[in-house]
Structure prediction request, 331 residues.
Amino acid sequence: MNTAIKNHERPIVVLGASGRVGNVVARHLLDKGIAVRAVARHTEKLKPLEEKGAEIWTGAIEEQDFMNTVFTNAKAAFILTPGDTASPDLHEEQRKNNEHIVTAIKHAGITHVVFLSSWGAELAEKSGTIYGCYLMEQLLNQITGLHVVHLRAVWFMDNFIYNIGLIKMAGINGLSIDADFSFPCIDSKDIGVVAAHYLSVLDFTGKNIHYLQGPRDYSMKEVTKILGTAIGKPSLKYIKFPKSVMIQGLKSSGTISANVAQLLVETNEKINASKVHGEIRTAANTTTTTLEEFAKNKFLPAYNNEKKPSFFSKLQGAFLRLYLSLTANNA
Ligand SMILES: NC(=O)c1ccc[n+]([C@@H]2O[C@H](COP(=O)([O-])OP(=O)(O)OC[C@H]3O[C@@H](n4cnc5c(N)ncnc54)[C@H](OP(=O)(O)O)[C@@H]3O)[C@@H](O)[C@H]2O)c1
Prediction:
């Protein structure tokens, strides 16, 4: 229990408090002695925050009454627009979730919000999984008197952890992003630190956009070299997957719907086309954690934790490599 937290202090709501960014936000606020109302659907994942002194609120964004209660009497909030990877219609799910959150913010009269947005959130055209962030920025900007910071974060380095299964199964790394195209990547924890700072100081006014772009841009070839070196496979090869292979691969994970697979590939394509992009790099949008540090501190432990592939999945991996070598002109 954090004894520095005063019982009478109005808490800061942290949605997705057991997630990658929300958890860092909640921990940093608690470390500063600030009261936190930690929200997610699964209690057990919130327990460590309760031990640090947070109020634990278990429930879903989909439940409007629950959301209204969550925001009541809160001082400020960290919010996000999560989506289920198994959703048959992610944009519709994001639209509804956004409305529930915004209704609750208005109901409670919250004055300060930090929103975990995304690069590409300025695009009104449907840009893959990012579209939900566009919708949310629009909704928040329409609330008179609300002070908000949209944290437009770029590609999370953490996304590369989802490729561990592929690396173990097929001995290659792959996405639908061009091999030599450089784009910004950020460690999700660096976003949490910035969000917690905004929420602890609460000195922002009006509607603001703050891009967070990681330490530098990386190409997938560089990413693969860095991650491969960290796991003892410095010659790991990156292959740009054709759209159909990428979609099939995502769907065969068993946790990603056809709709979300399509949207994820669409996001990759918008990155290739520079439609989804960051802004000119400055000290304010550059964060510190390098991909080498991420590889050592997050990727390697995750790689070591993932179970060995079965004989059958190694066979599938060999077929995938063969198929790609026959169909694609990859470097
Ligand atoms: N990945 C990227 O490259 C990228 C780039 C820019 C922006 N973003 C944004 O980052 C966000 C994801 O942040 P993250 O990585 O920190 O999330 P995360 O690690 O996936 O965690 C999601 C959190 O939200 C909770 N949650 C999920 N669905 C919920 C629901 N229906 N009701 C209540 N709580 C729910 C989860 O806990 P429970 O499951 O227990 O509920 C968990 O605490 C996305 O919304 C995306 O827009 C991502």
Remarks:
- The first helix runs from residue 20 to 31.
- The radius of gyration is 20 Å.
- The CA atoms of residues 95 and 135 lie 7 Å apart.
- The pocket of NAP is lined by residues 16-22, 40-42, 45, 60-62, 80-82, 116, 118, 133, 153, 155-156, 159, 188 (CB under 6 Å).
